Amino acid sequence: MKLAVLGGSFNPIHIGHLALADEVCASLHYDRVLFIPTYAPPHKEMNAAVSASERLRMVELACAGDSRFMADSCEIDRGGISYTYDTILYLEEKFKAELEGKIGFIMGEDLLSGFHLWNRAEAIAQKCDLILARRPSLAENSSFANRPLGKYAELVQGDFELEGDPLFAGALRLANAVLPVSSTDIRTRIAEGRGFRYLVPSSVFSYIIEGNVYGRE
């Protein structure tokens, strides 16, 4: 089994995440994409975050309609700050009987400039096939946007050049569709009473509305 991993806060998961996973399977021939909601990301403070169990449930609902997709609660179960390197070690052990080749690790281009700051970034790059995905250029200056923490807040996106960076030597460039949707925008829309029905899977929309997940009256 060729396995790829897509981590994130998924606050909430949306159609852009699913379209990205579909492209990884279709273009790079991965058999499964594992969605791993983080418990507490080390690089940002999550704004308007719901509980970890609610974010996990939304991911499970989103994955239910596609046998190629699966949610994994390992980082939530672990609690505290989870580092990608530890998660990769866990997955290698969990799937060792069926894993084919290296695990594919999906990264949005917005994360690339700060990758060198990650815990054991070089080891991650060696253990995994890095899959670099295009991301929409959205102005997320909303009060609902996540705030970078510590050294990540000092990064200047324009200073980064991918070409020639040894961490990304051999990385796979994905020509995925770039959908103008983000979790920040969805949270903003919910708070302002605007439409978001078709930005998330129908099961996730129902879960948010019926459970008043983001406090929409």
Explain what the structure shows.
The protein is α/β, with parallel strands linked by helices and 217 residues long. Helices cover 31% and strands 16% of the residues. The chain contains seven helices and eight strands; from the N terminus they run βαββαβααβαβββαα. The strands form two sheets. Strands 4-2-1-5-6-8 form a six-stranded parallel β-sheet, sandwiched between helices. Strands 3-7 form a two-stranded antiparallel sheet. The longest helix is centred in the first third of the chain and has 14 residues, at 15-28. The protein is globular and about 45 Å long. The chain starts with a strand and ends in a 6-residue tail after the last helix. The mean pLDDT is 89.
Topology:
Layout: E1 3-8, H1 15-28, E2 32-37, E3 44-45, H2 52-63, E4 69-71, H3 74-78, H4 84-94, E5 103-108, H5 121-127, E6 128-133, E7 147-148, E8 172-174, H6 183-191, H7 202-211
Parallel strand pairs: 1-2, 1-5, 2-4, 5-6, 6-8
Antiparallel strand pairs: 3-7
Helix pairs in contact: 2-7
Most strands sheet: 6 strands, parallel
Rg of Cα set = 17 Å
Q: Tell me, what's the shape?
A: globular
**Global mean pLDDT:** 89
Strand adjacency order, main sheet: 4-2-1-5-6-8
First-to-last CA distance: 44 Å
Helical proportion, percent range: 25-40%
Instruction: Work out the number of β strands.
Output: 8
Query: What portion of the residues fall into strands of 2 or more residues?
Result: 15-25%
How many helices? The count is: 7
Low-confidence stretches: none
Q: What structural class results from the helix and strand content?
A: alpha/beta
Order of helices and strands: EHEEHEHHEHEEEHH
